[in-house]
Amino acid sequence: MRILVHEFVSGGGFDRRALPASLLREGAAMRAALLADLAALPGLELAATADPRPGVRTPPGVRAAPPAAGAGRDFRRLVEDADAVWLIAPETRGTLARLAAVVERAGRLLLGPGSAAIRRAADKGALARRLAAAGVAVPATRVLAGVGGAGGFPERRHPGAGAAVDTFAVAAALGYPVVVKPARGAGCEGVARARHAGELGRAVAAARRAAGGGAVLLQRHIPGVAASVSLVSDGRRAVALAVNAQRVRAGLPFRYLGGETPLRHPLAGLAAERAVAACAALPGLVGYVGVDVVLTADDAVVVEVNPRLTTAYLGVRRALDVNPAALTLAACLGALPEATPRVVRRVRFTAGGAVRTAALPGTEPGAVGRRAERPPGTEPPADPSPATGSRAMEPRAACRRPRTNLHRGTSVRCSRQ
């Protein structure tokens, strides 16, 4: 199988524009890790796009493909030369969905969610409503659209936003502090916390800039432990691979610093259950999915669903006893692991791609639940060579939701309605 890996930032997506250093490090780190994992699998011919400016390394055995700016002719040609395409790109301004649509129109295998599922997950206002309707805990959310007016930000009518409202009144009703973010964004870009009305204008302006003047969200800030859940999904069911701690510096703006896998927390199992339920509420999510959650004293609140590879992959790939790229490929072909793979290492990682590992006690065979079946050639590969690296509803389906045990595997079977 010929696989094209296209990481948007390091693969030419910025064309002639300046490359943001933090995004470049993050994207290049994910690209290097994924290519190392795919290169460890038999029967694959790999190509990866590379912007020549940053000098991103393409590992031996992987063909360096020309950079691709946007979803135009150059990208279409690269897609047509491949059997399958793995995209790593932001949802911001519809970027990931447009790239996925090109792969779909070319009739190639998309190693990730389709464009429709990406749009459903990326619309954060609609996502909150979908998840709430499915019984998944989410922050109180209001959508604000339009620019200009009193205080700089009264809003025009927007689907789901109701009648015209005043931003400051909305924030006061939600209760400070509030989190402001683009309605369609990725990572911490344009995300800020406003602790009081004096900070709200700056937070909204930052979100507007990141959204290109589009809609923004106000959400009630949920105090607690920031975490994420890494999953693989076949479009109907999802299996949690790991629960990860997130190191996020809240403020004006937010800043993602890295994380740790696995998260040691009494509600880690509940976080996995909530993430699986969130995937079930979004039919069509295929491949690797990351779900951001906040763990409070007694609940796990889902904040976002990322329909793509996330930076937590840097930790997950080293923590598990199986190659997560192999699990993702199998999920895209309709086969999910029968059990959650064993976590055998504690891994700390930065957004820049630095990784530190330590063995977990009690990880000898049989110490942590059932071991996942390992297909031939899926042994965890060695670390990639250092690169320029760093961190990136439909109506509710009828589900049978078993009690979650992260170490014994978590899945929800759903029938589409």
What does this protein look like?
The structure is a single chain. 26% of the residues lie in helices and 24% in strands. It is an alpha+beta fold and 417 residues long. The protein has three domains: 2-121, 3-Layer(aba) Sandwich (Rossmann fold); 140-220, ATP-grasp fold, A domain (Dna Ligase, domain 1); 225-415, ATP-grasp fold, B domain (D-amino Acid Aminotransferase, Chain A, domain 1, 2-Layer Sandwich), CATH 3.30.470.20. The chain has a seven-stranded antiparallel beta sheet, with helices on both faces. Strands 3-2-1-4-5 form a five-stranded parallel beta sheet, with helices on both faces. The protein has a four-stranded antiparallel beta sheet with strand order 6-9-7-8, with helices on both faces. The longest helix has 19 residues, at 21-39.
The CATH topology of the largest domain, please? Answer: D-amino Acid Aminotransferase, Chain A, domain 1
* Average pLDDT number: 82
CATH class category of the largest domain: Alpha Beta
Strand content: 15-25%
Classified in CATH, the superfamily of the largest domain is ATP-grasp fold, B domain
Ends distance? 34 Å
Write the CATH architecture name of the largest domain: 2-Layer Sandwich
- Secondary structure class reads alpha+beta
The unreliable regions are 148-164, 364-379, 385-417
Descriptive labels:
Dna Ligase, domain 1; seven-stranded antiparallel sheet; five-stranded parallel sheet; disordered C terminus; D-amino Acid Aminotransferase, Chain A, domain 1; 417 residues; 26% helix; alpha+beta
